[in-house]
Design brief:
315 residues, mainly alpha, 9 helices
């Protein structure tokens, strides 16, 4: 990438980096809250059962009270953070910011490659008008809470123009493939890791049930531990659902494959001006479709990470 003095392009690029930075900040907050709620739910369930276990083994004591207080504290905090995790406004802001960033980015590459509608003499004005239109729709919804340091970090050099097809393939198509493919693999690995945890927890629940039910090895185990393991398993399931890891891995992989196919189709085409235009528009459409589908899926209401059995009962 290189600097180029073009007021329309520079303005649109800065808008893209702005909303991409806002999106990353909001997403980081949501991911942090979700994982925090998961941990608090797990520790709350464990502390609650430890309180019951100690009460059975040692009657009332300081340890029983401490574990009980910690359980109430962890579950209470989990409930508090859940309000932020499933807050519709927070998720809406994330979705809108990410959508805006991708919209600005798509316009930038159409403009840089002189592709419709930017293959005319008033291309600069068209891009500036489009950017203003997008900004006016988004700015009332999104608040830029980035620090000056974060804003400076998001200021990158803009793209070369006019951009050749080869440069477009390298900087846009291949860059997106290099984003989608590793993300798909990462999400699949994350799913597999948590599924293994669920299998281990299920096995432990069966083992504890057998040992406790038949009083094997003269070990006294509170039946509540089986419920705890079930609660943790439910919390993990809700965590995976909220993250949409399976859906994202499938859509990322599918989009990467479509872009690879388009790249191959371009290579064997006659590479005429018409084929060039069709290729670039098709690539932008594939990326746009993935983004829209992603937004629809993420806008669905997330399940609470806290199981119903641990939620405070209304009076």
């Amino acid at each position: 990438m290189s600097e180029l003095v073009d007021a329309s392009l520079k303005y649109t690029w800065n808008q893209y980096k702005k909303y991409a930075g806002i999106s990353r900040k909001i997403k980081s907050k949501i991911v942090k809250f979700r994982f925090t709620v998961l941990l608090l739910t797990i520790f709350g369930a464990i502390m609650g059962t430890l309180s019951l276990q100690y009460k059975v083994m040692y009657a009332e004591g300081s340890a029983t009270k401490v574990f009980g207080i910690l359980s109430a504290l962890f579950i209470g905090l989990a409930g508090y953070f859940t309000k932020d995790v499933i807050n519709p406004e927070l998720e809406k802001a994330w979705i809108v910011a990410r959508s805006a960033a991708e919209a600005f980015k798509s316009e930038i590459y159409l403009y840089a490659t002189n592709t419709q509608p930017y293959n005319s003499t008033n291309a600069r004005q068209l891009l500036l008008d489009k950017s203003k239109e997008l900004e006016e729709k988004i700015s009332p919804i999104i608040v830029d809470e980035r620090s000056d340091k974060e804003k400076k970090k998001d200021e990158n050099k803009i793209i070369i123009m006019p951009m050749s097809v080869d440069n477009y393939i390298t900087e846009r198509v291949q860059d997106q493939i290099d984003f989608y493919s590793p993300k798909a693999v990462k999400n699949i690995r994350k799913i597999n890791k948590w599924i293994k945890c669920k299998h281990i927890l299920s096995f432990c629940a069966v083992l504890i049930g057998v040992i406790g039910g038949f009083s094997l090895f003269n070990i006294t185990i509170n039946a509540g531990w089986v419920a705890v393991l079930g609660t943790i398993t439910t919390a993990i399931t809700a965590y995976l659902y909220a993250g949409r890891f399976n859906y994202l891995s499938i859509t990322y992989q599918s989009t990467a494959q479509k872009l690879e196919w388009l790249g191959a189709a371009w290579e064997i085409s006659n590479k005429s001006d018409e084929a060039r235009e069709d290729f670039i528009i098709a690539c932008e459409n594939v990326i746009s479709i993935e983004n829209r589908a992603w937004m629809v899926e993420l806008s669905k209401k997330s399940k609470s990470i806290i199981p119903d059995s641990l939620k405070p009962k209304s009076s």
